[in-house]
Every structure is written in C-alpha cells, then in structure tokens.
Target: Hemin-degrading factor
Amino acid sequence: MENQTSLLRSRLEKLRTEEPRLRARDQATRLGISEAELISLGIGKDVIRLGGDFKELLQEVKKMGYVMALTRNDNVVHERKGVYDNLTFYPGGHNMGVAVNPDIDLRLFMNEWVYALAVIMRRGKAGDLHGLQFYNAYGEAVHKIYATPESDLAGWASIVEKFRTDQEPIVIEDRTRPAAKAEKPDEEIDIKAFQQAWLDLKDTHQFFGMLRKFGLTRTQALRLAPEGLVTPVDKLSVEFVLNTAAEREVPIMCFVHSSGCVQIHSGPVKNLKWMGDWFNILDPKFNLHLDTSAISTAFVVRKPTTDGIVTSLELFTEEGEMITYFFGARKPGTPELESWTDILEELATSSLMASTK
Model:
C-alpha cells in the first residue's frame, strides 16, 4: 500500500509540474483515481483526514463565520458566500437535512457523505486557502467549504482538532457508480394518470414523488407532460434568461446538485461573462460556472401549485442528467414573480414561433 501511495505521489508531482493549471478533478482522471483519493495523497503535508459524525461537523462550521460554499456536478459549479446557520437534520433512513438561510441554502443527503478532508491550499502571494471537502463512496466531491478573508481560521482549526481521525490516504476499490435504470417504455406508463397527477400538483416538491410513483425519468416526464406545460427551447437559452433577469433586475433561484447536496442561490444576478464554452455569473456573493458544451436540451417547465403556476428553466445533458435549473425567487405561500414569468413565457413563445417556421 505504501509503495502504491508513493508511486501515485510521484506521478502526481510530475503531472503538476508538467500541467500546473490542471484542476484536481482532471488530475485524478489522468491518474486513474478518484478526486478524494487524489486529495488525500497530501495527508501528512497540507491535508488532514476527518471522521466522526458529519452532521455534527457541519453544525460546527458556523464557528468559521463568513465562508464560501461550493457544490458542483460534472458540468456546473455553484459558489455561494455566507454563514452556515439554521441546520436541521431529520430522523429516518433517508438521513436528510437542510440549511435554510438567505445566503447558505442547502438540501443535504447525508448518506452520500462518506469521506471528509481538511485542506490547506498553498497559493503563493495569494495566501493559503483553508477548506473542508466532503466526498461520497465513489470519491466524488459532494460539497466543499472554503474560508474567505473574513473567516475565523480558529474555527477551522477547532473543527480539525475535534474531528481528526486516522491519517491514512483514502483508497477506494470500486469507483464506478452503478448505472441508472433503463428508462421505462412509454407504453408501460399510464400517461393519462400521470398527466392528471401533474395537473393536480399542489407544491413543486411533489414533483419528485410523482416521478417515483410513475417510474419516470425527469426528461421522460417532460416529454410526456400535459399539453402546454413544457416547451423545448434552445439549449443556450440560459444566456437570454439570465441576461434579461439581470437587465430587468429580476431576482432568481439557481439550483445545482451533487450526489449528496443541492445548493441554492436566491437573489439578483448582475455580472455575466462568457469564457470559452463556460457561461459565468461573477457576483460578489454568488459565482456560477456553467459548461454550455454539456447542454443537450433545455425546457421551460410549468408546475401547478396552490400559489399558482411556477415556471422554471431546466437544462439537461445528452444522457438526460440534470445540469442545473432556474426559478424566479419566491417563498412558499407567495405567487411567482410576474417579471420572471414574463421572461420565460417570452422565451417559450419565441421558441414555438421558431419551431413552426
């Protein structure tokens, strides 16, 4: 094991010398290991392995004060600054929790949180960056927390001291997540009952239960939706939607998920910028980095609720994996902002007109 670890460390050092700008996820891919295993190669230097109850650990993050929360999947990175507060964890096998704050707004699926590492990233003149990183059983990043210049590093140190565990590098034998179940053939679905269930929705959160009940993938549900409730739009419609929201000062909600966390931004967006294929939001408290080359399909989706229709823009990969989705900022019990509805209905109308030409 030690020989294997030494070999990996040597290969990593060589790779970083040859390609210093290569990100950790890409370094791991090059070495044929997971990101968790890659980062843990720094144990004994700038990485400390943590253990114990990660729910308890998250309750301690408040001691760090103002931090940056990061959740990503393969195609989008969501970064939000704020304070970890108001965490609630629910009993039961699903092991779920929430952090509900104006800034740090998370939905937590703790069964996916398997490994934790405290890291110090040496950045030369930019100074050291202290963080906490969490990974699932396959070594994929679930959530990361980084200190900001306003953070209390004594809080970070106290977390490390309390949750420090055996300092062995992470080794994962099986890094391959089981393939998703094949999509059920349309003819095996009671489409009429499904469409009625959609029309009978009272809350957007009921949508996920409806998919489970009828055994549908999300993109299949959008394809079989009741007439007039889903409109396919151009895959780069996100640029129009966010630019228009910025110009009209319409606050949005942006959701990004990993396997174990959904991270939400609620508020305005202002500074939008293209960098190659990446479309970015670069605001003081909120950054989004979206790889538009991964977007295969995009939809305007309408869901009934007791507060009226709620409208979203949803982006998917070619494999039907959710990338990210956007709503107008709203609280339960209040109708959707008309200004947000207007943006998405303008998009949907122009898309329908284009498709009939």
In short: The mean pLDDT is 95. Residues 211 and 221 are 7 Å apart (CA to CA). The chain has ten helices and 18 strands.
